[in-house]
Write a structure and sequence with these properties.
mainly alpha, about 200 residues, ABC/ECF_trnsptr_transmembrane, 2 domains, Energy-coupling factor transporter transmembrane protein EcfT, membrane, transmembrane helix, transmembrane, globular
Length: about 200
């Protein structure tokens, strides 16, 4: 089954989902308040050290691979403008924040996260049913590895048929695939009576 949750059990799997999500929010707030490249790099060192301590560093790094081209674009843009330091800080923050988020999803069952989202969405119940918001968040998290796999399959299919690099066409193809998958999920939910 495609999932972001690691099948390898660690001590972090036993922590409550709410605690991990709260620590993630706190870490992200502190990370974006840190000034300078050195302190921001230390912020990145924390999730890396945790991933290593949990024995999940290989999978953790693999999940960060899609950020390589985004980081390269940010660094190139800031280099072109002659402001490399803000670009480096932005990339470090992005990798650290998403790396910490990956650790949470790798060590937390989706049903546990959905329960936290349901609890957090209760104050919005006069506007939107909390179950719908919780389901939307769970589906978003669940579809991340599916979209990653779909992008990899489309890229391999393109490489088998052409010697040219796929480039931006992959973004368009993955977007269409995501919309198609979303339509199938919506049909399945409607067939089962939707969600309260």
């Amino acid at each position: 089954m495609l999932t972001l949750t690691s099948s390898r059990q660690t001590w972090a799997h036993d922590w409550p989902a709410g605690v991990k999500l709260g620590l993630l929010v706190l870490f992200t707030l502190i990370l974006f308040a840190l000034p300078g490249v050195t302190l921001t790099a230390l912020g990145l060192a924390l999730p890396l050290a945790l991933a290593t301590a949990l024995g999940l560093v290989g999978d953790w790094l693999r999940l960060l691979r899609p950020l390589l081209w985004v980081g390269a674009v940010i660094l190139a843009w800031h280099g072109f403008r002659g402001t490399p330091e803000p670009g480096v800080i932005a990339v470090l923050r992005m990798v650290a924040a998403l790396g910490a988020a990956n650790l949470v999803t790798m060590t937390t069952r989706l049903s546990d996260m959905q329960a936290v989202f349901l609890w957090l969405a209760r104050p919005l119940s006069p506007l939107v049913p909390p179950a719908r918001l919780a389901l939307a968040m769970a589906l978003m998290i669940r579809f991340l590895p599916v979209l990653s796999l779909r992008a990899e399959q489309l890229s391999q299919a393109w490489a088998a048929r052409s010697r040219r690099r796929i480039g931006w066409a992959l973004v368009f193809a993955v977007t269409l695939a995501a919309l198609d998958d979303a339509e199938h999920v919506a049909e399945a939910l409607r067939a089962r009576g939707g969600v309260g």
